[in-house]
Write a structure and sequence with these properties.
Elements: H1 16-25, E1 28-30, E2 36-38, H2 41-49, E3 53-54, H3 57-60, H4 73-79, H5 90-105, H6 108-125, E4 129-131, H7 132-137, H8 139-149, H9 156-168, H10 177-204, H11 207-211, H12 221-251, H13 254-262, H14 267-278, E5 283-288, E6 292-294, E7 297-299, E8 304-308, H15 309-312, H16 347-364, E9 369-370, E10 375-376, E11 385-387, E12 389-391
Parallel strand pairs: 2-8
Antiparallel strand pairs: 1-2, 3-5, 4-12, 5-8, 6-7, 9-12, 10-11
Helix pairs in contact: 4-10, 6-8, 6-16, 8-12, 9-10, 9-12, 10-12, 12-14, 12-16
C-alpha cells in the first residue's frame, strides 16, 4: 500500500497523485501523528464552515503543552493573531484588517503596474533569461505590502527573510532547527514592528501603521503586532506563491496561455482557475470542540483535522476534469482562500496583485517559456516555488 503521508518530501514536486489516492482509498485518514487528514471537497467544506470546528490556538498549536512548559515564540505570536481566534474575539481583528485592506485597494492597480514595469525592465536588462520567482514574483508583493504597511525600502529585505523563516515554521510536522529559526524570526519581527509603531507614534509613520497608532477598538498592542505580522508574512509569501505557481501552470499549458494572451479580459476567470489548480495554500487545520462525525468517521472532542484544501480543489465529485487547467471554467467554488469565518481577509488584495502581475509579465515578455526545471520550497502548508527559470526571445 502507498504510504498516506502528504508531508513527505517526495510528494512536494507533485502532491496531487497522492491526494487522489488518499481521497479514493481513505478520504478521512487517521494519521500516525494523531490527527485526521481530509481530502474530499464536501468533508473539507463541512469542517471549514462547521460551528463546532475551532481554529483556536490552544486547541491547535500546543494542545499537549504542560502548564509550566515554555511557549514557543512563534506560537505566542500566532495565538494573538486573527489566524487563531474564534468568535467573538475574531471580530475586532477582522474589522481592523478589513480597514487595512480597504486602504490598500485605493490606487493599488496603478502602484502595482508601476512596480511591475520596473521589475520587468530589470529582467530585460539581464538579457534573455531570468528567474520569475527571484526577479519578479517575490519582490512585487513585497514592495507593495511593505509600502502599504509602512516598512521603509531599506528594511524590506530583512522583513522578507524573517517572513520566509516564519512561514517555513508553519508546517504541521516541523520540528527541531526549523522551529528554532521560526521562533527567532517571530521575536525579531515583533521587535521590529514595535519599533515601527513607536516611530509612528512620534509623528514619523507612513503607511497604515501610522493610522493604527491609536490602536483599533478592541485590540491591544500585542494583537495589533500579531495581525500586522500575519498580513506581511502571509501576504507576501502567498502572493508570491500565487504568481509563481500560476505562471508555471500557464507555461506548462501552452493552449491556455495562448488563450489568455489572445483575450486578457479572461484574467478574472483564469485567476480563480489558477488558484484552484495549484494555489499556494495547501492546508489548514481545525479542532472539534465536541464529539462529532465527518465523512462517516466518528471524531472525539479535541481531535484535530488537517483540511487539505488543494486535494478538495481536485475532487472530481465537485470539479469536472479537475487535474487539467481550464481558464474558462465558469463555476469554480474553490477553497484556495479558505471558507467560513477564517476565509482569507486579504483575498481582494491578493487577486489584484496576482492579476496585475500575470498580465504585466505576459505583456512584457511575448515569447516567455520555461528554461529548465522549477524548484519547490521544502514546505507543505505553503507549496511555493523557490525558483522558476525562464527565457524569452529578444
Amino acid at each position: 500500500m502507498i504510504p498516506m503521508n502528504p508531508f513527505h518530501a517526495r510528494a512536494r514536486p507533485d502532491p496531487y497523485p497522492l491526494y487522489q489516492y488518499m481521497r479514493t482509498v481513505e478520504p478521512v485518514h487517521r494519521s500516525p501523528a494523531g490527527f485526521l487528514i481530509l481530502t474530499r471537497y464536501d468533508d473539507c467544506k463541512a469542517v471549514l464552515e462547521g460551528k463546532d470546528w475551532s481554529h483556536d490556538a490552544d486547541r491547535l498549536l500546543e494542545p499537549a503543552r504542560g502548564e509550566l512548559d515554555p511557549v514557543d515564540p512563534t506560537v505566542r505570536l500566532l495565538r494573538a493573531s486573527i489566524l487563531f481566534q474564534d468568535a467573538p474575539r475574531h471580530q475586532p481583528h477582522l474589522r481592523s484588517l478589513e480597514n487595512v485592506v480597504r486602504a490598500g485597494m485605493k490606487g493599488a492597480e496603478a502602484r502595482l503596474r508601476t512596480t511591475a514595469a520596473g521589475l520587468i525592465k530589470l529582467m530585460h536588462e539581464k538579457g534573455g533569461a531570468a528567474d520569475v520567482v527571484r526577479d519578479y514574483a517575490a519582490p512585487l508583493p513585497l514592495v507593495f505590502l511593505c509600502d502599504l504597511i509602512g516598512v521603509p525600502p531599506a528594511e524590506r529585505g530583512q522583513v522578507q527573510r524573517w517572513g520566509r523563516d516564519l512561514a517555513a515554521g508553519l508546517d504541521p510536522l516541523e520540528a527541531g532547527r526549523g522551529v528554532v529559526i521560526a521562533g527567532a524570526a517571530a521575536a525579531a519581527m515583533v521587535e521590529y514592528l514595535l519599533g515601527r509603531l513607536d516611530h509612528a507614534a512620534g509623528g514619523n509613520g507612513g503607511g497604515v501603521i501610522g493610522q493604527l497608532v491609536p490602536r483599533p477598538k478592541g485590540l491591544g498592542t500585542w494583537e495589533l503586532i500579531a495581525d500586522l505580522t500575519t498580513m506581511l508574512v502571509m501576504g507576501v509569501e502567498t502572493s508570491a506563491g500565487l504568481i509563481g505557481n500560476g505562471m508555471l501552470a500557464l507555461l506548462r499549458s501552452p493552449s491556455e496561455l495562448a488563450a489568455l494572451r489572445a483575450n486578457p479580459s479572461l484574467i478574472d476567470t483564469a485567476l480563480e482557475e489558477l488558484i484552484r489548480y495549484d494555489g499556494p495554500v495547501h492546508l489548514t487545520a481545525r479542532a472539534t470542540a465536541i464529539d462529532t462525525e465527518i465523512g462517516g468517521v466518528q471524531v472525539k472532542g479535541g481531535e484535530q483535522a488537517i483540511v487539505l484544501l488543494a486535494a478538495a480543489d481536485h475532487d472530481p465529485a465537485r470539479f469536472s476534469d479537475p487535474d487539467h487547467l481550464h481558464l474558462d471554467r465558469a463555476e469554480n467554488p474553490h477553497l484556495g482562500f479558505g471558507l467560513g469565518m477564517h476565509a482569507c481577509f486579504a483575498a481582494p488584495l491578493a487577486r489584484i496583485i496576482a492579476r496585475v502581475a500575470i498580465l504585466s509579465l505576459l505583456e512584457g515578455f511575448p515569447g516567455l517559456e520555461l528554461d529548465g526545471q522549477p524548484e519547490w520550497n521544502a514546505t507543505v502548508t505553503l507549496r511555493t516555488l523557490k525558483q522558476l527559470p525562464v527565457r524569452w526571445r529578444q
